[in-house]
Amino acid sequence: MLTVDSVTKHFSEKKVLQDITFQVDKGTCVGIIGPNGSGKSTLLKIISGLLTPTSGEVKCNHKNILHLKQKTIAKKMAVLSQDGLPSSPISVFDTVLMGRYPHIKWYQRERAHDIEKVQDVLNLTGISHLQNQLLDTLSGGEKQRVAIAKAMVQEPQILLLDEPTTYLDIGHQLNILELVNHWQKETGLTVIMVLHDLNLAAQYSDELILLNQGVIEEIGTNEEVIQKDILERVYETVPEIVMHPKNHVPQILLTSR
Ligand code: ADP
Ligand code: MG
To answer: Which residue, judged by its Cα, is nearest atom 25 of ligand 1?
Structure first.
């Protein structure tokens, strides 16, 4: 479904990504982890066609993403950037409705079908009571739900998320990831998400990619990537790995050296 083939990215002299190759199958959730500055956001921007790689290519259903029109990409992919939604005095309803634009022709206004879709998704994401509230008056957790709702009405095949749980408390972090997880399971959505929390990444991803200084350090299942020696090498810390008592996913406990 999605192929990243020998992608390299340089910003003038600076080599930010080098020879990144992997494939993502339809319906899977891939977690991208790695230290700050390892190139995660840059990789996500290249996958979404926002940045052009220095060499290599990203293909979606065998087509180079850079050869597709913006609107065609928007029908295939929804992106939640690291910056989140801008703080503007626009209502929640209108913000989510914007997610329908890839499906509305330039000479059309939104149709009854689009309005229904927005209402369904507002209910599904538990924010219908906020629909008339302005975006710049929402809490962080509410705003992230609006961002997910906007992506949902876009009806993409692929969802790209860049650190969607930053600044949220643990309850709201789980809330957002559960929402994405249900959506993935219900519709066969393909998810690529950057998460800085390794424990959450291990719990919600089918596969993990560990980036370090612009290269893929490890790629594989949670057990293959969440290993003491690998994390010690990459993060220069001494983690203890334990199995989660409930779902037997590897989890990390931090200790000082
Ligand atoms: P991460 O998301 O893993 O923290 P980024 O992809 O944001 O990392 O950044 C990786 C490296 O690329 C950083 O050193 C950053 O300074 C650099 N970088 C990112 N964007 C640009 C840019 N537009 N111009 C120059 N350097 C950039
Ligand atoms: Mg980043």
So the answer is: 11
Give the CATH number of the domain where residue 202 resides: 3.40.50.300
Q: Categorize the per-residue pLDDT at 257 as very low, low, confident or very high, splitting at 50, 70 and 90.
A: low
If you measure from the C-alpha of residue 114 to the centroid of ligand 2, how many angstroms do you get, rounded to a whole number? 33
From the CB of residue 98, how many other CB atoms can be counted at a distance below 10 Å? 15
Tell me the residue range of the domain where 139 lies.
2-226
The whole-model pTM stands at 0.94
Q: Which of 132, 158, 166, 157 is nearest to 146 (CA)?
A: 132
| Ligand 2 centroid – CA 181 distance (Å) | 21
Q: Is residue 248 one of the residues assigned to a domain?
A: no
Ligand nearest to the CA of 9: 1
128-163 per-position pLDDT tens digit: 999 999 999 999 889 999 999 999 999 999 999 999
pLDDT per position as a tens digit, 22-61:
999 999 999 999 999 999 999 999 999 999 999 999 999 9
Listed residues: CB within 5 A of ion ligand 2: 40-41
Ligand 1 pocket, residues with Cβ under 6 angstroms:
11, 14, 16, 34, 36-42
Counting the structural domains of the chain, the total is 1
Helix (H, G, I), strand (E, B) or coil at 66: helix
Whether 170 is covered by a domain: the verdict is yes
